[in-house]
Amino acid sequence: MRVMLHSPIAAEDQARVIATILAEPAAHVGKTYTLHGPTELDQAGIAAAITEVLGRKISYKPLTIPQHRERLEKGGWPEL
Q1: Element containing residue 43 per DSSP (H, E)
Q2: Burial letters 15-45, b for 16+ CB under 10 A, else e
Q3: CA distances to 16, 22, 31, 38, 55 from 13, in Å
C-alpha cells in the first residue's frame, strides 16, 4: 500500500497569496507557486489532527475503487 503525504495549507494563507496575485497580476505572469503547509501528514495523521481539534475520534479507513464507486452511485452521482 502506498502512503500519500499531504501538507494542508490554511484557506486564509491561500487567500493572501491569491489576493496578492490579483492585485498585481503582471508581476506574476508565467510564475508557478507551490502552496503547502508546514507539516506533511498521511491520511491517518490528518484524521488524528482533526480528532485533536474536534475533541472526538475521527479515523481514516481507505476504500477500494469498487467501494468508492458504490458510494458515489448510492449518493446519486452521475456516471461520467
Answers
A1: helix 43-54
A2: eeeeeeeeeeeeeeeeeeeeeeeeeebeeee
A3: 5, 14, 18, 12, 25
Q: What whole-number distance in Å separates Cα of residue 48 and Cα of residue 38?
A: 16
Distance CA 51, CA 24 (A): 39
Do 37 and 10 form a contact (C-beta atoms < 8 A)?
A: yes
Query: What global pTM score does this model have?
Result: 0.56
Residue with cell 494542508: 8
pLDDT one-digit tens code per residue, 17-74: 999 999 999 999 999 998 888 888 999 999 999 999 999 999 999 899 999 999 999 9
